[in-house]
Write a structure and sequence with these properties.
This protein has about 200 residues and is mainly alpha-helical. It contains eight helices and four strands.
Length: about 200
C-alpha cells in the first residue's frame, strides 16, 4: 500500500466516495482488514447484495481491491490505500469543487456524529472521558501560517497510523480512536483584513 494518503482530484471519484455506506465500508476495511460482502453486511446492517454492489463501485474508482482469498467461495476485499483527501487546487473546476465540498460536508457530519456518540459512550469511563476532548482556538494567521499549523496537526494525528495495519504495534488497552482537526478562516469573506 502507498505510504501517502490518496489525493482525490477527479469529481467522479469524489462523488463515488461521498456516500455514507461506501464510507462505512471503507472504514470497516481500514479498521478490520479484508472482509467479504457478507461480513460487511453483518457489521453494517445492510444486505450482502447491497454491500457487494457498493464494493464494486468502490473498486471501479480504485478505493478497494480483491484481497487474497483463503479458498472456497469466500471473496474478501481490502482497501487500496489508507487515508485520503481532496486537492483544493487553484485550477480546480467548478464540478470538482462542488463534489469536493459535498465530500467534506459528509465527512464532517460523520465525525461530529461519532464524537457525540463517543461522548455518551464514555460517560461512565472516567479515564476515557478525560482523554476524549474537544478543543478550539482562534487567532490571527497568514495563509502560510495556517497551512503550516494544519500540516503540524496532520503530522501529530498520523503519528500512530502504522497501528491500523499492524495489530502487534497496538499497546494493551488501546481503543480505536479518531482524531479530527481543521484550520480555516472564521470568515473567509474578510480574509486578509486585520484590525
Amino acid at each position: 500500500m502507498p505510504d501517502e494518503p490518496r489525493r482525490l482530484k477527479d469529481p467522479r471519484e469524489l462523488r463515488a466516495i461521498a456516500h455514507p455506506l461506501r464510507m462505512a465500508i471503507l472504514e470497516q476495511l481500514t479498521m478490520h482488514g479484508p472482509l467479504t460482502a457478507t461480513e460487511l453486511s453483518e457489521r453494517l446492517g445492510e444486505s450482502p447484495a447491497n454491500c457487494s454492489w457498493h464494493l464494486r463501485k468502490l473498486a471501479e474508482h480504485n478505493f478497494v481491491e480483491e484481497a487474497e482469498s483463503t479458498g472456497g467461495r469466500r471473496r474478501p476485499w481490502q482497501v487500496s490505500s489508507i487515508g485520503m483527501g481532496w486537492n483544493q487546487e487553484d485550477d480546480a473546476d467548478a464540478e470538482t469543487l462542488m463534489a469536493g465540498h459535498a465530500l467534506t460536508r459528509m465527512w464532517l457530519e460523520r465525525w461530529v456524529d461519532r464524537f457525540l456518540t463517543a461522548e455518551q459512550a464514555v460517560a461512565d469511563k472516567p479515564e476515557w472521558r478525560r482523554a476524549a476532548t474537544l478543543s478550539q482556538s482562534a487567532t490571527w494567521l497568514t495563509a502560510d501560517e495556517l497551512a503550516e499549523m494544519n500540516a503540524e496537526m496532520s503530522a501529530v494525528m498520523m503519528r500512530h497510523l502504522d497501528r491500523l495495519e499492524d495489530p502487534s504495534k497496538r499497546p494493551e488497552g488501546a481503543q480505536l480512536c479518531e482524531l479530527v482537526g481543521w484550520g480555516a478562516p472564521v470568515d473567509p469573506s474578510i480574509a486578509g483584513e486585520s484590525r
